[in-house]
Write a structure and sequence with these properties.
Alpha-Beta Plaits, 34% helix, 2 domains, Aminopeptidase, alpha/beta
């Protein structure tokens, strides 16, 4: 470990109380979607002493803060998302959510706190930086999507346009302080499927006088699973999960309509398009076979997240120099989660990596995962997150300046 990396890690450790305080403030007051006024105010307050060029998104609560180094050079963007999830919290923490039905269950509170703290660390090194560091605080990752509106506003198309992008995402099922990454496919594309099947209602005792859509929509669920396992290569996988089925009002009435909602995950454009076509065909033709009608809606969500191979190798080297070679895990396969950081990676080379935050004395495999109402993270791991943000920025500007 070089003297620079030793100093970065020591400074990150010193700043940990600042990061914890900001994280807990955001955790207590979770906000949803693209309108996060309290969270934005907390971030702006944290950045206020740093003399950054702050630009506010007009259509969202997003923030872009630019740190100008002492000499001209390249630029790198570091991103942290800020929004919570519409779900209850059952952690029992003293700083648990104070708003019913909202929880920071995906660690965005820690992403924001680590990024703001890294801004403090890097600002103290301004005289040594050739170029710019762009801090992107983004709302709406859990929906409806905050990256695209910020891109559409042109916040990154002027002098703030980055030459590289980097983001960390916490992972409770990975040993605390570990960094995991991989080149190429990292996360999947995510689409939402909604199908309404229309038959003919009637009395539950006389199904022959009706045309019951319930067994047909159940058959469609099974047909989807056969479709996924028989029409796609195992090395270009698709996951189609039906998460909701709804029909009827009482037990002795055959409903006129039944509906399902599903999530579709894929990695390649070809698999995604094949899945869309097959879902429509199965629903419409199965409905026709039973003399029913099917209305199919597919909402295209975030594209797949692809990491640049060269930047992943840079992250691996930087992680090793900071924490030792054993702190880096090469992921053997991507995950089926989705991220709108993928939109930034479509524009600019870079990578997203996972930061292990398994709580102390808990087997990482048994830890409550992201999106669990009991998800907790090891706040001490934010030291590694702050230090890696700073080291990636410093090393990139130094090597490309």
């Amino acid at each position: 470990m070089s003297d620079t990396h030793t100093a970065l890690l020591a400074q990150a450790q010193t700043l940990l109380p600042h990061a914890v305080q900001l994280r807990r403030e955001i955790h207590r007051h979770p906000e949803l979607g693209n309108e996060l006024p309290r969270t934005r105010a907390s971030v702006l307050q944290a950045l206020q002493p740093l003399n950054l060029d702050v630009r506010l998104s007009k259509s969202t609560s997003g923030i872009v803060a630019v740190l100008e180094g002492s000499t001209p050079g390249p630029s790198i963007l570091l991103r942290g998302d800020m929004d919570a999830l519409p779900m209850p919290e059952d952690t029992g923490l003293e700083y648990a959510s104070e708003i019913d039905g909202r929880m920071h269950a995906c660690g965005h509170d820690s992403h924001t706190a680590m990024l703001a703290t890294a801004a403090h660390l890097l600002s103290a090194r301004r005289v040594d930086l050739p170029g710019k560091v762009i801090f992107m605080f983004q709302p709406g990752e859990e929906g409806p999507g905050g990256a695209q509106p910020m891109i559409d506003e042109g916040l990154f198309d002027t002098d703030a346009k980055p030459d590289a992008v980097f983001a960390l995402h916490i992972y409770p099922n990975l040993r605390s302080g570990m960094i995991a990454c991989r080149a190429g496919a990292f996360l999947a594309a995510a689409d939402t499927v909604s199908i309404e099947l229309r038959g003919k209602g009637g009395h539950g005792s006389m199904p022959y006088d009706a045309n019951d859509p319930v067994p047909v929509i159940c058959e469609l669920v099974q047909a989807f699973q056969t479709f996924v396992t028989r029409r796609f290569k195992p090395f270009d996988p698709v996951v189609l999960t039906v998460g909701r089925i709804a029909a009827g009002t009482v037990n002795n009435v055959i409903p006129e309509c039944a509906m399902l909602e599903a999530t579709l995950r894929s990695f390649s454009t070809m698999a995604r398009e094949t899945a869309h076509t097959g879902i429509r065909r199965l629903a419409e033709q199965l409905a026709a076979a039973y003399e029913m009608q099917a209305e199919v809606t597919i909402d295209q969500g975030y594209p797949a997240t692809y990491n640049d191979a060269g930047f992943v190798e840079f992250v691996r080297q930087t992680t090793g120099e900071l924490f030792g070679a054993d702190a880096y895990l090469e992921m053997p396969e991507p995950l089926m989660g989705a991220e709108d950081f993928s939109l930034m990676l479509q524009r600019t080379p870079g990578a997203m990596a996972f930061l292990g935050v398994a709580p102390d004395d808990v087997d990482p495999a048994a830890a409550a995962p992201c999106h669990s109402n009991r998800m907790q993270l090891n706040e001490s791991a934010m030291v590694q997150g702050v230090a890696l943000h700073a080291a990636v920025a410093c090393e990139f500007l130094r090597k490309h300046g």
